[in-house]
């Protein structure tokens, strides 16, 4: 049997457009004598559809598109499409997250998803009823163990949040499935490619059947999908692999069981491709921007953001603006000019002193007798943000925000200032990885795209004389290590202190700063997600809250004492 | 039996502080010879705890606090506390949302929540395993049908999203429950009070037992809780009722079965109290702000916001700033000055022309030859936002954002401009209700707090000469009607057109504007939720998306044709 892995890149909500693209890919596959075309999870509406699914008229549109598609299928071919399907039971959630098996002039067959991820960025139980039952679908003499995304992930070794009761893959095999076929919308993060390989190898070892994974590709706002569709033979070896980060039709003949030689991924190279994909897709799918616009500070974050934008959109569609103040070192402007020259982008210089002076004089009656501080620093950052947004409004440009994950964690950034923009490119990249990206982008092109002086100078916000990040923050290698343990591994101060050797009070204060700055992140632009725990939709912390470790410790002590005395 | 309804106002995450306040309320009840004290849902950690629950160390702290509390209970009293409790099964979600029945020196008893709301602002299946089983707890010869919040809501008439399989209340009664006791964290919205009454009356009619509802009170960031704890007798009459919007201990003797005379709520009066509560609680629970700061435009939104702030914090803790530009009518400043005088708040006048002129001259080389438009208008709005934020940063003031729901829907507001701030007071109030609030606040005090000229003038952003809202937007009564049907009732253009008689193209364009402006709302400050569907956490729409009604219609037409030809 010839199976096509249709690694499709949908636009969320564009049900008609997505259906038409399905048909194009199906006709292409048909011309190549394919028997079965498999699309990703929720391919007809795009992942994640969010609360579009709460609208009955959207689900109606899905039904229209599925009927339209089925009527146009060539004779003999079968396709599996991902779609939300109405639950006929008046009790339970109104939809299933389904794989729809379609042939021309035959009743559609359905496999509804059993395991509904509802953690981090996933909220499937918001919309979907878990299926109580799945069965293989017979096609051309083979029992196809079709299932959807999370249904393959219930092995203890891979459960970050919790295990499920059911094991859909095992249930399909016990019903005689000859091959497992998974429709996914599995987002990129740095370890996912290897994790998918390991998981599928474990499943093949347990069940001794080949495994086909077809995943969505592209990016939708904050979520990036690398695709990574593949086929493993019954022994777990990869025998077909789709190109990463590209829409593609990978055709696999089930006779082809020879292992491919799959090189391990370079973490930073993949991160680079992911971020480029995220920018390009935000731009393309929005379809309204003329250029990307970046405030160039001479620092590493804006330089890397600009270089990524060039890789995503081409130099002619990227514009830099350097906005010096009286605290900007001459190096800042020079480095921005060198960067622009290296990247081949235009760069305008708009000094912000007139605006800053205007605000300071407007505010001087009210501010009289106060010491210059954060208010004055933020006036500078916000004058820059305002300038960028004015240019964006005037010419229809997309402002790319340059802050990194370390800054966002600590609130070391100005709301409505450097946090302004439509897409925060590095919001999920820790500072040390921003450096790694810079070095990688220089190495791989063999030339100094990011000026070495930018990479080598001490990071500074340049909002007051001789300011350095390290006046306010721990050194980035230390900071990133602690933040990763707190944010991504959800460890508390005491355990982090124990594991790293850093002083408990130092760690506690740092975690408190993370908690306290939730209000800033609430108002941040969407950020490209590249880790398993990004700020934003996947990490929902209260804004007004109090978690007082000291009082809890005293309460614990107090209870113990009480117990001993009793 | 004497039961105390402990209508508690927790701080989210402040487990130690909340536990101590539990003990105070319990000792108060004990001194009044109460047998049983009932606290609201998740009272020990506060609702909604969000992803604090993903942290194992937070759940540890809950266990510490529960043990601490139990050891301090007076002899003879029993208490029911709401808490996240670990699920001992290695499969399934790691926690239950539980009612914990505690007495001194006795094993704790648990009732775990069965129905886990996961829609709108609720995301309980993100954290909790649904309970498979509940039983009444016997205390002093009575079988107490204790259950948690949503467990009482599974009647078809009240299901907005879907029905559940199980009916926990009926199951408790079938096991002999003599009285139903519900622990809730039920947020305020304009129709909730009546809805709770109707629902409980229906439950009493079906089951013929008294019903005790104990709900959280206060506000946590965007969510406001009116409390509304009460007891209904077996006939469904209200026999005890806690004061709304206040922490309180309402003691009910089970012999007291005489109906109270409960006046129906005035919708606008309740809205006023809810918004005042939201502001006061954001301020008190944050505990870091000196004053509330409001940009006064002379318009209705900022006037109402300022008056609400005064009612929440007192006039001495509210500061207004009027920031005229060359397009501001003289009336704008005058009205702001009158408002400040009426409210007794300080008002500073900071003209923004110096900043606007500075930006225009800085940008003039780049903008040369372009026509003035949105870019120039937004420079004004953002210069105001920047000014407010500078004052906020300087003095530690909380900027209250003044935009209303109609504006937010249409994107008729400037990101980083008038959308700046820590809390968006009117974000869930349609414009016509802002007017109603203004009139109510004048009527109820019998004096002109909001200047009549502010109420009567045509709404204008005053960002260009003679600008009026109605140049860009439909009249507000029309706009609000359509928006309510789309946002709150999730109806599509065709049905809205049918129901209201407005032209379909006009409606479609309006809905498109709502969709297109999701990117602005993504970066809005948290807004006080007062309806059943507020923008923000409860309405999660894709930012980059496309929903093309025309293409779907053509596809439907096309499929029909195809079918006929076939």
Count of all domains of chain A: 2
Largest two-chain interface:
A-B, 113 and 111 residues
Mean pLDDT of chain A: 96
Based on the structure, what is the oligomeric state of the protein chains? Answer: homodimer
CATH superfamily of the largest domain in chain A: HUPs
User: Rg of chain A, please?
Assistant: 26 Å
Describe the structure in brief.
Helices cover 40% and strands 16% of the residues of chain A. Chain A is an alpha/beta fold and 566 residues long.
Can you characterise this structure?
The structure is a homodimer of 566-residue chains. Chain A has 566 residues and is of the alpha/beta class. The first copy, chain A, has helices spanning 15-31, 56-71, 168-174, 192-207, 267-286, 300-313, 330-343, 353-367, 374-395, 405-410, 431-445, 452-456, 469-472, 476-488, 493-500, 504-516, 518-522, 549-565; strands at residues 2-7, 36-38, 78-86, 95-102, 109-112, 137-139, 142-148, 179-184, 211-215, 217-220, 223-226, 230-232, 238-241, 248-253, 292-296, 318-322, 346-349, 398-401, 423-424. In chain A, strands 5-4-3-2-1-14 form a six-stranded mixed sheet, covered by helices on one side. The first copy, chain A, starts with a strand and ends with a helix. Helices cover 40% and strands 16% of the residues of chain A. Chains A and B meet through helix 1, helix 2, helix 5, helix 8 and helix 9 of A and helix 1, helix 2, helix 5, helix 8 and helix 9 of B.
């Amino acid at each position: 049997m010839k199976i096509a892995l249709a690694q499709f890149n949908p636009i969320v909500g564009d049900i008609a457009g997505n259906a038409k693209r399905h048909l194009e890919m199906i006709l292409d596959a048909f011309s190549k004598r394919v028997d079965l075309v498999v699309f990703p999870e929720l391919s007809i509406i795009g992942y994640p559809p969010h609360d579009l699914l709460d609208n009955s008229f959207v689900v109606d549109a899905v039904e229209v598109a599925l009927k339209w598609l089925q009527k146009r299928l060539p004779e003999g071919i079968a396709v599996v499409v991902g779609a939300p399907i109405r639950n006929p039971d008046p009790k339970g959630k109104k939809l299933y997250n389904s794989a729809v098996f379609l042939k021309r002039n035959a009743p559609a067959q359905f496999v509804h998803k059993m395991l509904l991820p509802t953690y981090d960025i996933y909220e499937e139980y918001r919309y979907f009823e878990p299926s109580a039952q799945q069965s293989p679908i017979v096609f051309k003499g083979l029992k196809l163990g079709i299932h959807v995304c999370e249904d393959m992930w219930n092995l203890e070794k891979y459960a970050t949040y919790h295990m499920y009761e059911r094991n859909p893959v095992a249930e399909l095999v016990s019903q005689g499935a000859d091959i497992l076929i998974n429709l996914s919308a599995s987002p990129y993060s740095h370890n996912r490619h290897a994790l998918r390989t390991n998981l599928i190898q474990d499943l093949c070892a347990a069940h001794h059947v080949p495994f086909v994974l077809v995943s969505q590709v592209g990016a939708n706002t904050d979520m990036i999908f690398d695709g990574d569709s593949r086929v493993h033979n019954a022994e777990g070896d990869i025998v077909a692999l789709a190109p990463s980060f590209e829409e593609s039709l990978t055709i696999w003949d089930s006779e082809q069981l020879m292992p491919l030689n799959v090189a391990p991924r370079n973490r930073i190279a993949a991160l680079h491709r992911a971020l480029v994909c995220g920018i390009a897709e935000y731009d393309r799918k929005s379809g309204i921007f003329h250029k990307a616009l970046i405030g160039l500070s001479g620092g590493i974050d804006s330089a890397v953001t600009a270089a990524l934008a060039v890789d995503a959109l081409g130099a002619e569609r990227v514009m830099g603006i350097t906005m010096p103040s009286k605290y900007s070192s001459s190096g800042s402007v020079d480095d921005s000019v060198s960067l622009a020259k290296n990247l081949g982008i235009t760069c305008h210089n708009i000094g912000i002193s007139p605006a800053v002076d205007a605000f300071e004089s407007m505010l001087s009656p009210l501010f009289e007798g106060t010491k210059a501080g954060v208010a004055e620093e933020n006036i500078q950052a916000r004058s820059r943000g305002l300038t960028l947004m004015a240019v964006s409004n005037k010419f229809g440009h997309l402002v790319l925000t340059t802050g990194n994950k370390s800054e966002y964690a600590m609130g070391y950034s100005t709301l409505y200032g450097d946090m302004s923009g439509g897409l925060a490119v590095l919001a999920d990249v820790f500072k040390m990885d921003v450096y790694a990206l810079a070095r990688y982008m220089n190495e791989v092109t063999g030339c100094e795209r990011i000026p070495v002086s930018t990479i080598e100078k001490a990071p500074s916000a340049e909002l007051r004389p001789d300011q350095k990040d390290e006046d306010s923050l721990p050194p980035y290698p230390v900071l990133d290590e602690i933040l990763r343990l707190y944010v991504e591994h959800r460890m508390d101060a005491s355990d982090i202190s124990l594991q790293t050797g850093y002083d408990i009070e130092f760690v506690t204060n740092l975690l408190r700063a993370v908690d306290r700055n939730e209000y800033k992140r609430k108002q941040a632009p969407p950020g490209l997600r590249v880790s398993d725990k990004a700020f934003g939709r996947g990490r929902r912390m209260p804004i007004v809250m109090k978690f007082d470790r000291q009082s809890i410790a005293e309460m614990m002590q107090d209870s113990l004492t009480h117990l001993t005395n009793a």
